[in-house]
């Protein structure tokens, strides 16, 4: 009901009153779009939106969901997302995304670290 994962650890935290908010990728996107975009150039903002859309498409295709909690992120997620990016066709160029473009879409922006702590 609270939109949180049901794990033994989360139930224990709830019972002992130690729980914190579980952040999702959509929480990060919302924070980024409302807080950071005013400080970015239009081109950088456009690229962030493109990365967000790639992540959303990946989660929908691979997990049949609309969001993903940060606590769920693991190396497997990153590898699968990398593979997904290498197989999709670029909207602006002919052919698949090249290595450097894939790495830029996978890169974690510095402000996200506050959500991971």
UniProtKB/TrEMBL annotation:
Pfam families: Phage_int_SAM_5. Keywords: DNA-binding. GO terms for molecular function: DNA binding. It comes from Zunongwangia profunda. The keyword Transcription regulation does not apply. Residues 25-107 form the Phage integrase SAM-like domain. This is Phage integrase SAM-like domain-containing protein. InterPro entries: Integrase_recombinase_N, SAM-like_dom.
